[in-house]
Design brief:
Immunoglobulin-like; Rossmann fold; 3 domains; seven-stranded mixed beta sheet; 12 helices; 34% strand
């Protein structure tokens, strides 16, 4: 291995990138090969424009050409800065290049927030020192076109709304857009790199024998492997599949020796030893050859129906939420409905609805009603973490896009006066914790729908949906109001089994949200322990609500989700009661993180229509 990551600091944000090919030269006093620079370093982004996204993370190919008779050892240190020139992370890579050898490898920049960034690199080898500076950009999950601006702060947990089918959405602004495979290509070599005989690339592809990456006891866990050698020299080495638990424990290693002719292709199949226990497993695919060294991440699930995690159910859980519901009922909602001219269209009337929730705190939503008179089923949409949901326009549904407290900028100072991370706001006291009010805002939104049936709403057909935090809020709402929700569409729900998910999150090589926010908060507030935090979180843990959900659920999980341990998300689904579980569907995406593929939105649309056909029995 050329590089050993030693992460010094990592923030919780996501990003974009622009760095051209950098050829560095240091006129050392060491012996110089005739007609050649003593040491040459080429750094190339994997995308020509150096624009990256969640599916194609920030990644670079680096080539060290050592023409000296002495090995070159040292480090490459890179530091990333945001638009305000604040340092967001620093990583160190250990480097060794043998004498008269060319070494090629890859490294990823673990960025987690959308934006434009500057990267500064310092390379110090035995006979080579140099500094470089460039810029790059990272875009989060594709969203509406008007939102695709690198300088917009994108919170780490995002909403994944369903594709809209209205005539108003033909502009292409609605729904998520898919990236084409040819938008992210290997970076071309520059002129100096192209002159080297060893310059090229290795293209490695792994494909599970089952598309969803889910295997069961009676099945073999197989992967097809294809390795294309784009170099002009033969490659000798190994391919190693390393299987780990979510906590990083290695449970098996499968290795294949490689001999690939120049410009050749090698295809083979590997069989992974079956794990002894059900769960989600990470697969690190390491390719080490003469001039190439890289590791790619994959994941698969084993016996998902048996994945369970312990309950950490407070003894007064039901009483706690009954009290919250009772307190909410005492608050006059003071509904205010005003036509929204900006968002209304030829086919839809859109209204801004303001109301008051628990502790008389204000929040709002967008109600969208088709102009064609009639009775329509209702879709209640909940947004992602600190993410505003805009009007959702459907031809055959009335929709209510709910923006809970913490979204409206007018009241943000009142909600969070010290600008703390929302997930930790008042976490010391379960009765004051931010999510008590947030979950009750979700309930009040349903109250609004049921008190305004005269606006064309068919109250026997009410569905809830959301992505990320919105998925969790939809499920919590269905649990607390089981007689008022027909079905829930939940994509990549979070906040499930906090104890296990946090343990997995903080054990990773690089922390992601929310684990990084929690770790920082606990470090800054040593008097507040992890045990005390979990005591509060147990009252708001999704898995403790799931047994109370009575309706069908369309549930989606990415096996490489960085914001929740995928095993925890699946375990929460398995806690649905049998009647609901038998009518629900679980979709697994092994190659995705905190997102769903664009084609899944079409299935969401089908589910909307199917579940809206049957009226709920009163």
């Amino acid at each position: 291995m050329i590089f050993d990551f030693k992460i010094q600091y990592l923030s919780k944000n996501l990003f974009l990138f622009l760095i051209g090919a950098i050829v560095c030269y240091y006129p050392s006093t060491a012996q110089k090969a005739k007609g050649k620079d003593p040491v040459t370093v080429n750094i190339l982004p994997y995308n020509k424009k150096a624009k990256f996204n969640r599916k194609f993370p920030v990644k670079y190919k680096i080539q060290f050409v050592n023409n000296l008779k002495d090995a070159q050892e040292g480090t490459l240190v890179y530091t990333v800065y945001d638009n305000s020139n604040q340092e967001v992370l620093e990583n160190r890579l250990d480097v060794r290049v043998n004498a008269k050898k060319t070494l090629v490898s890859n490294f990823e920049v673990p960025i987690e927030k959308e934006g434009n960034y500057t990267i500064k690199m310092a390379i110090e080898l035995t006979n080579f020192n140099s500094n470089f500076e460039g810029g790059f950009s990272y875009i989060g999950p594709p969203r509406k076109s008007k939102d695709r601006k690198p300088d917009i702060a994108q919170e780490p947990i995002v909403n994944t709304p369903p594709l809209n089918w209205s005539k108003d959405n033909l502009s292409g602004e609605a729904g998520r857009q898919a990236l084409n495979a040819d938008e992210v290509k290997d970076a071309p070599a520059n002129e100096e790199a192209a002159s080297e005989e060893e310059e090229g690339e290795m293209i490695i592809k792994l494909k599970p024998s089952k598309k969803d990456g889910v295997f069961y006891t009676g099945e073999k866990i197989k992967y097809s492997v294809s390795i294309a050698n784009k170099y002009k020299v033969r490659q000798d080495g190994t391919f190693t599949a390393i299987v780990e638990t979510e906590m990083g424990e290695v449970i098996s290693t499968t290795q294949v020796k490689l001999k690939i002719a120049k410009k050749g292709l090698k295809s083979f199949q590997i069989e992974i030893p079956k794990p002894k226990k059900e769960g989600v497993y990470n697969l690190r695919a390491a390719t080490n050859t003469s001039t190439y060294d890289d590791t790619a991440q994959y994941a698969f699930a084993f016996d998902i129906g048996k994945i369970k995690t312990p309950y950490y159910l407070p003894p007064d859980f039901d009483e706690f939420w009954q009290t919250a519901m009772s307190d909410l009922a005492k608050v006059d909602p003071q509904y205010k409905i005003a036509r929204d001219e900006e968002h209304s269209t030829k086919y839809h009337d859109v209204y801004r609805v303001e109301m008051k929730g628990l502790d008389e705190f204000p929040f709002f939503g967008y109600l969208s009603v088709p102009k064609l008179k009639g009775k329509y089923p209702v879709i209640i949409g909940y947004g992602g973490y600190k993410k505003e949901v805009f009007p959702l326009l459907f031809d055959e549904f009335i929709s209510f896009a709910v923006n809970v407290r913490g979204i409206d900028k007018k009241y943000l100072k009142d909600f969070n006066p010290e600008d703390k991370e929302q997930i930790m706001l008042n976490a010391e006291d379960k009765n004051l914790y931010a999510y008590r009010g947030i979950y009750m805002d979700c309930i009040r939104a349903v109250d609004f729908v049921y008190s305004h049936g005269h606006m064309g709403m068919d109250l026997s057909r009410v569905l809830a949906f959301g992505g990320s935090q919105g998925a969790t809020m939809g499920l919590v709402t269905a649990a607390l109001m089981p007689d008022k929700i027909n079905a829930v569409i939940a994509s990549n729900p979070v906040f499930a089994d906090w104890k296990n998910s946090f343990a997995v999150g903080k054990n990773k090589r690089s922390l992601a949200f929310p684990s990084d926010a929690i770790v920082k908060y606990l470090k800054d507030n040593p008097e507040f322990t992890e045990e005390q935090m979990l005591e509060t979180f147990n009252y708001f843990d999704l898995q403790n609500f799931m047994p109370k959900v009575k309706c069908p659920v369309l549930y989606a999980v990415g096996l490489q989700d960085e914001f929740i341990a995928p095993g925890s998300a699946i375990a929460a689904y398995n806690k649905l009661p049998f009647d609901a579980l038998s009518k629900s569907e679980l979709f697994i995406f092994p190659d995705l993180g905190h997102e769903i593929p664009v084609y899944h939105n079409s299935f969401i649309g089908i589910w909307f229509n199917e579940r809206a056909v049957n009226r709920r029995r009163r």
